[in-house]
Structure formats: structure tokens, C-alpha cells
Design a protein that fits this description.
The complex is a heterodimer of chains A (347) and B (279). With 347 residues, chain A is an alpha/beta fold. Chain A has helices at 20-42, 58-66, 85-99, 110-123, 240-249, 258-262, 293-299, 328-346; strands at 3-10, 12-13, 16-17, 45-54, 71-76, 103-107, 127-131, 133-137, 146-153, 158-164, 170-174, 191-194, 207-212, 226-230, 253-256, 283-287, 304-309, 322-325. Chain B has 2 domains: 2-222, 3-Layer(aba) Sandwich (Rossmann fold); 241-279, no CATH class. The chains are: A alpha/beta (347), B alpha/beta (279).
């Protein structure tokens, strides 16, 4: 009899949790359920657990329990108040070695990507980056189900399913918004286990001298409810004025396809797609975007997609709930007018 | 004297990759190979600091003989020494096995000629994993600064480097002891036009070819397919979602097209809560 543990790294900065952590607890719960039957038959137990690092963050551990963790391993130390690669990865590796999780999921945020590669290398195990699909599947030659991690490769042009046969944990990083938030249960019970991992002085040698807050760069596109995105069909950088106006009317933010960002029409923080951000808004409007695969993988999980393109064969229409074939410079102004009228009617 | 080492990858220009719709295979013919753009910026930063401090820039790349063109391009951009790590035994490596080979080579170079800063691009545009840089740092036990946008100082006397790195929330100013490893965003430095002497030198430049047999010493257990914990289980084209309704505004008129689109969004319960929430 053994314990099969499905772990999620709970990412926080300055006491604020990155929502991807909760999304991944939902995924871990599903993965655990996929091996439940097999585990019972073998007399094994299955556990969904979080690992959390920081300083004075026990309240976050309690939140993790409400999102589905039955146990949270907490390393709470002053040296871990701000994320730094070395003390973080060494602490995590210490706890992983102690409990031997089968699967470990980390958000593919800037912090998570910095961390995941270091943890995996230190443990000499496999890590699949930016997964968009995860399941525990049967694989020939393996008695237990293995983590099948699917990710876009070559700029989103192909999907590759990767597995890690022998080394543990099987690690994956997952982008924010690829998976939905799991249900929140305020009455859920769970356990917080405090861990200590001794660090050398050398581990904390790299230090943060200062934080520069840069408001202009933060578009908040990942968690926006409404995104209006523009593509090459805008013709010039000025085209984004129209996109901005529509986004403003809808209380949304401006997105963009890669060619516009590469051409310098708009900042990278706006880029939607495999090489930019993955988004999952309630409403996504794509204007003048042809719909390269790398763009589609970043937005196809939106609740409702409206595409506007003058080319009736544009691939963006394949993922749209509704497509308007036409000139965006006619369609968007008319759309703005209609939205204004509707808002007045509602007021 | 400053010694920078830059790890460079040759990648297919992913914007040009297509899938053969009949066979489902990757069409590689006619796809140009380029220096990974982030690596080009990392190299530019290394060369900039070489010019400021005096010293040299070495580069390493891992791949088949066709990668020599990328090494020549690096020489054109100011690299002094180019090493191509090339051996069939290294083929099929995942990020863990790749970081092993690169770390072993970098360690060997460091023993010949101590390195101050190891530069990587933040990620390669074909795999987008961003895993190899951190992996090499862990193996060499170097402090790492990922997503660097600016190097403020490299102080060879005090053995310190100060750089700015961009996270989702803010920009951090980080100080690390040398030697250190940084992975670079494009903002780290502009890729310059090559000066004529570098251009001429690059045309005839023959990189050193390092193999499994040396000069670095490898453990066969950790390289190539054998050293790779992950395998590709299957590959395919992304699943096609169900396409929705398409309305031609030239046929029905712009207003009618919008009315139909919005009616669908209303039916899905999307539009009203959004408009109700905006004033």
C-alpha cells in the first residue's frame, strides 16, 4: 500500500495568491479521481495536496483547502517572503524528497517558469511546459496510469503529448486560464503541515535590491472578462484606437495578435496567443485577426467569441461562436453605436 | 578581463511552419532556420559588455553541422569563440539532457578560461519551454536571473552583477554574485549591425566541434534519448472546435449582422451582464 500524491505549487507574491494555483488544484483533483479506481484495487490511497512557501501565509494555506487541497505543506520563513529562485527551489526539492509526490503541477507564470525548470533539474525528473491538456492515461508497459501532458509546440502548429515514464514527480507547468476555477467550499476541512528546510547562506546570496512598480505595463489581460483584440487587418497602429473605443464601451481590455506586437503597433503585454498570454474571458472579439494556430490556442477557451474579418475563409471563424464577414471599419463603429444604445436602454 | 558565455540555439522560423493536411506531418522544407531571437539579444548584451569592460565572448550551440551558419552569425555579431556541440549521441535530448550537456561544456570552458556571466535567451521560440537556462544554473550551482530586461552593472572587482528582471507584477532589481547566469528578454540590448571586420571574420570562421569524445567528459547515461526522462507519446494537429454561425455583413447589412451576432451572445447569457456592469 502506498500513497499517490498529486501536488500543486501554490504561488503567492506579497501575500496575494495567483489564481492559477486554484485552477491547478481543480486539475489535480480531476487527475486524482482518474486513478482512484486503479488505486483502490491496488490498496493505494490518493491525495490532492498543495505546497506553499512564503512568510506569514498560513491564511493562504487555509484557502487552498477550500479549493480542494486535503493537505498543504507550508514552509513559512522570513527568507521566503519574496520569491527568489534558489531558496525556493531548494526548499521545494527538500519537501518533495520527503514525501515523493507522483505528480507536481506549477503555474506557467513568470515565477512558476523560473521555478519549475530549477526544481525539475534538481530532482532530475521530466517537466513539460505550458500544458493545455492533462490526463492520467493508460500507457503500454506501465502498471499505473501516467500523466499525459499535451502542449502546443512549434508556435502552436502541432500538439505534442509528452509523458515521463520512470522519474518522479511527473511535472507540468500550466498557463493561467487554461483550466477553469474549481468550486470553492468554505466548509472544507484539511490539514496544514509545517515543514522546515535548512538553507545555506549561499542559497540566499542573490538578493532583491528594489521593486519598481510599472503601472503602464500591466494590462491584466489574463483575467479580463471582456477582450477586444486587433490584428493585422487594422492596417496601421492607429487602428487600435477603434479597438480601444469598443473595449472601453464594453468595460474590457485591448488584446492583439502577434504580428501587431512584432511590428511594434502595441505592447507585448497585450499579446494573446501561445507566445503571449492565454485568456479565457466571457466575451472575446477578434477584429482583423486571421487566426493563426498560435493565436487560437491562446483564446479558444473564451466563453463567447465574435470574429470580424473581411476574408470569409479566415481560420479565426473556425473557433468563433459567431463570425461577421465584413469590413471591421464599418462593423466596429456600428457595434459601438449599438452597445451605446443598449446601455442607455438598460440604464 | 570580462568573459561572457552565450548559449545559442538555431530554431526553425515558427511563423513559417505548416502541417501537411493529408499526412499530418510537419512540413520542414523551405522553413528557414534562424538564430533564436532571444539568444540574439542575449548575445548583443554580452558583446555590449565586452566592449565596455574589455574581454571576450564565447558561444556554445548544440545541434547538427548545419548549425555552423548560426555560429558564424554569432561571430558576425561580435562573438570571439564559437563551439558547436555536435554528436548523434546527443540527439533526441529533452530539456533535462540538454541542460546536462550544456552545463558540462560550460564547466569545461570555465576550467580553461573562467566565465563571469552565462547568458541565455529567455526561451527558444520552437519549444517555448524556458527550462534549459534554469536547468544549467542548477547544475552549475549558479545564481540565476531570469527575464532580465537590463543589466545595470557588472562589477568584476567586487564580483557582483546587478540586473533588472521583469515579472508579471513589477520589475525587480536583483544583485547576484559572479559568476551568474541570466536569461534575457529582447529589451536587454538591441541587435546591432555587424561591423565590417566581424563580418569578414565570420565568413571564414570555423567553429570548434565538440563531441561525445571530448574535450568535455560526458556520462553516456545522461545524454540524448537515454538521459531524457520525457518522451513524446504522440503528436497531432490541434483538435478543430465546432465553428459557429458566419454572417456576411455585405449581404445582410452591417446593422443586421450585428443584431444577429448580439442575439446569439444574448441567448448564451453573455452580453447583458457585461453591459449591465459597465456605466
Amino acid at each position: 500500500m502506498s500513497a499517490r500524491r498529486f501536488w500543486v505549487f501554490i504561488e503567492q507574491e506579497g501575500g496575494k495568491v495567483h489564481q492559477v494555483s486554484w485552477e491547478l488544484l481543480g486539475v489535480a483533483g480531476r487527475l486524482a479521481s482518474e486513478v482512484q479506481e486503479e488505486a483502490e484495487a491496488a490498496g493505494d490511497t490518493v491525495h490532492v495536496e498543495g505546497i506553499l512557501l512564503g512568510h506569514q501565509v498560513e491564511n493562504i494555506a487555509r484557502e487552498a483547502i477550500k479549493y480542494g487541497a486535503e493537505r498543504v505543506y507550508l514552509i513559512d520563513e522570513p527568507e521566503l517572503e519574496h520569491y527568489r529562485n534558489c531558496p525556493y527551489y531548494k526548499s521545494i526539492v527538500g519537501v518533495v524528497r520527503k514525501y515523493g509526490p507522483e505528480v507536481m503541477l506549477i503555474g506557467a507564470t513568470t515565477l512558476g517558469r523560473d521555478l519549475a525548470g530549477a526544481v525539475a533539474t534538481s530532482l532530475r525528473t521530466g517537466l513539460t511546459a505550458d500544458c493545455t491538456g492533462l490526463e492520467m492515461g493508460e500507457v503500454k508497459g506501465s502498471q499505473q496510469r501516467l500523466l499525459l501532458a499535451t502542449r502546443p509546440a512549434f508556435g502552436g502548429n502541432i500538439m505534442a503529448t509528452i509523458l515521463c515514464r520512470q522519474h518522479r514527480p511527473q511535472m507540468s507547468s500550466v498557463r493561467p486560464r487554461v483550466f477553469p476555477l474549481p468550486p470553492y467550499n468554505p466548509h472544507a476541512g484539511g490539514e496544514i503541515v509545517r515543514e522546515e528546510v535548512p538553507l545555506d547562506e549561499k542559497d540566499t546570496e542573490a538578493c532583491i535590491l528594489e521593486f519598481i512598480h510599472d503601472k503602464a505595463e500591466s494590462v491584466g489581460i489574463e483575467y479580463a472578462d471582456v477582450i477586444v483584440s486587433g490584428g493585422r487587418g487594422l492596417g496601421t497602429p492607429d487602428g487600435f484606437k477603434l479597438i480601444e473605443e469598443l473595449a472601453h464601451e464594453l468595460g474590457g481590455v485591448v488584446g492583439a495578435s502577434r504580428p501587431c506586437v512584432d511590428a511594434g503597433w502595441i505592447g507585448y503585454a497585450h499579446q494573446v496567443g501561445q507566445s503571449g498570454r492565454t485568456v479565457r474571458p466571457k466575451l472575446y472579439i477578434a477584429a482583423g485577426i486571421s487566426g493563426a494556430l498560435q493565436h487560437k490556442v491562446g483564446m479558444q477557451n473564451s466563453d463567447f467569441i465574435i470574429a470580424i474579418n473581411s476574408d470569409p475563409h479566415a481560420p479565426i471563424f473556425d473557433v468563433a461562436d459567431v463570425g461577421i464577414v465584413g469590413d471591421l471599419f464599418e462593423v466596429i463603429p456600428a457595434m459601438i453605436k449599438e452597445i451605446k444604445a443598449r446601455k442607455e436602454a438598460l440604464a | 578581463m570580462f568573459h561572457a558565455l552565450v548559449a545559442i540555439k538555431q530554431v526553425p522560423d515558427t511563423t513559417n511552419i505548416r502541417i501537411d493536411p493529408e499526412t499530418g506531418n510537419l512540413v520542414r522544407e523551405g522553413v528557414p532556420a534562424i538564430m533564436n531571437p532571444y539568444d540574439a539579444h542575449a548575445l548583443a548584451a554580452a558583446v555590449e559588455w565586452k566592449r565596455k569592460l574589455g574581454g571576450k565572448v564565447s558561444i556554445v550551440s548544440m545541434g547538427p553541422a548545419s548549425f555552423i551558419v548560426t555560429i558564424r552569425e554569432a561571430v558576425e555579431l561580435g562573438a570571439d569563440r564559437g563551439i558547436l556541440i555536435s554528436d548523434r549521441k546527443f540527439a533526441g535530448a529533452d530539456t533535462l539532457a540538454t541542460s546536462y550537456v550544456l552545463a558540462t561544456v560550460i564547466q569545461t570552458i570555465h576550467e580553461q578560461d573562467p566565465i563571469d556571466v552565462v547568458f541565455f535567451g529567455k526561451q527558444a521560440i520552437d519549444g517555448d519551454t524556458a527550462q534549459v537556462g534554469p536547468g544549467v544554473a542548477v547544475r552549475l550551482d549558479l545564481p540565476i536571473i531570469t527575464y532580465a530586461v537590463k543589466i545595470r552593472t557588472i562589477d568584476l572587482a567586487r564580483r557582483r552583477l546587478v540586473a533588472e528582471r521583469k515579472t508579471e507584477k513589477w520589475t525587480e532589481v536583483v544583485e547576484a554574485p559572479l559568476p551568474a547566469l541570466i536569461t534575457c528578454e529582447k529589451e536587454i540590448a538591441e541587435v546591432p549591425f555587424a561591423p565590417l571586420p566581424d563580418l569578414i571574420r565570420s565568413l571564414r570562421y570555423e567553429p570548434e566541434i565538440w563531441t561525445m569524445d571530448g574535450p568535455a567528459v560526458f556520462d553516456a547515461e545522461y545524454v540524448g534519448v537515454r538521459g531524457s526522462p520525457t518522451i513524446v507519446f504522440k503528436m497531432g494537429t490541434p483538435p478543430l472546435p465546432e465553428a459557429g454561425e458566419k454572417i456576411n455583413s455585405r449581404e445582410v447589412g452591417v446593422e443586421a449582422a450585428i443584431a444577429t451576432a448580439f442575439a446569439k451572445a444574448d441567448a448564451a447569457g453573455i452580453l447583458k451582464p457585461i453591459l449591465g456592469g459597465v456605466q
